[in-house]
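Appendix B. Chain record.
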Amino acid sequence: MSTTVSAVRRPAESARGPHRLALWYSVFTVHAGAVALLSGPGNDRTWGIWAVVGYAVAFGIAARWRTRGADVALVVGAAGGLLAPVIWLASKVSATPDVQVVERAATMLLHHGTPYLPVAALSAGGWLAYNPY
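Structure tokens predicted for this chain:
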């Protein structure tokens, strides 16, 4: 009798997993939509637009495809919420000041073995000379 009860409970318990996953993707979609709608023009809005699409598709996959939906939804959600916006912003948007500082530090590290300017060069280097990282 106990094997029958556990066999009956397993499908019900496993059915909660996809519903919970779909619920999380719906929360992610709403958050990204709020960012897209409430942000001013700029990088945050761009991320929100990309992420809404990626998370909404991941929600649909998680809600409908029970067997492998979690794996596919994860890939789609990561691609739409992370990979696509990063590629878009990296190729279309000019580097922000903090990115320029990190880029200069990386170049100095490769060429000189340290990401920092000598103390004597800090005053002549302008705002790019300071590397807080």
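Further analysis of this model is presented in Appendix C.
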